[in-house]
Amino acid sequence: MKTVVVTDSTSYIPKHIREILNIHMIPLIVVINGETYREEIDISANDFYEEVRNGQKLPTTTQPPIGEFEELYNELAKEYDAIISIHLSSGISGTYQGAVAAADVIEGAKVYPYDSEISCMAQGFYALEAAIMAQEGKTPDEILARLDDLKASMRAYFMVDDLSHLQRGGRLSSAQALIGSLLNIKPLLHFVDKVIVPFEKIRTRKKAMKRIEELLGEDARKGEPLQATIIHANRVEDAAVWKNELSALYPNVEFTISYFGPVIGTHLGEGAMGLCWTKK
Q: Which Pfam families match (predicted)?
C-alpha cells in the first residue's frame, strides 16, 4: 500500500524538507489590509511581520476552501492508496473539519484526516514522522498508532510578548490586556482539549522563558531522548541563543528552531516565543 502525507501551512515545515519527504501542503489564508495571501506561498513570515508592523489593522485569517482539499486529494488518489492528512487543532480552526468533509467524497484512495490538537512545529512533528514511516512502507494504521504515541508525550508552551494581539483578536479582554501590559505580564499559554488556554502568568519575558525551560527540564531529566523545537515570532537571534543554552543543559534533547508564521503570528504577535517537545 502506497501512503502519502498531507499537512497544512501552520506546521511550518520548510519547503525543502517537505519536498524531500514528499509532504504535500494546504495553505491557510491571511488577509492584510484587504489583500489576501496564501501562507507559505504568497507571503513569508519575515514579510508578514514587516507588513503588520507598518499596518493599521490587525490581519485576519481563514481556513482553506474545501475545494482545495478535494483537488489535492483527487490528484494524490491517482498515485496513492492512502492519504494521511494532518492538521492544526480543530479547537482553533475549521481546517481539520474541511479535511474530513473533503475525505468523504474522494474515490480511489482512503483519506485519514488527523487532528493534531495543536499547531506549528508540534504539528510538524506528526507530519515528519508520518512521512518517514510512509516512505518505509508502514501501513496507515501503524502510522496513526505512532502519531497517537507522540501525542501522549507532546508538550508545548508559548509566551506572548504583546498582549494587544490577543486582545484585538478577541482572545483577551481590553481590561486584561491593559493590566497585563502595565504589570509587564507575559502569559504562558498551552493547549488543553484542543484550545489555547493560559497556563501561568509570569512577570517579565526572562522569567517566562525560564519557566518554560523548567517545564522542559522536568521531562528531560527522566533521561529519555526527546526532540524539541524552539518557535519564535521574528526573533531569530533570541531563538539561536536559547537553543545553545538549552542544548548545553540537556544533551539528551535534540533541538531545532522553527517559527510562528503569518496565521499563528496574527494571534500571538511579534516577539512570541515557544518550545515544544515529545519523545523520539
A: DegV (PF02645)
d(CA 133, CA 131): 5
Task: State in words which class domain 155-279 has.
Answer: alpha beta
**In the CATH hierarchy, which top-level class contains the domain 3-28+63-152?**
alpha beta
Per-residue pLDDT tens digits of the chain, which is 280 residues long:
899 999 999 999 999 999 999 999 999 999 998 899 999 999 999 999 998 888 777 899 999 999 999 999 999 999 999 999 999 999 999 999 999 999 999 999 999 999 999 999 999 999 999 999 999 999 999 999 999 999 999 999 998 876 655 555 544 444 444 445 545 677 788 898 998 888 888 888 889 999 999 999 999 999 899 999 999 999 999 999 999 999 999 999 999 999 999 999 998 889 999 999 999 8
Domain ranges for the chain, please list them.
Answer: 3-28+63-152, 155-279
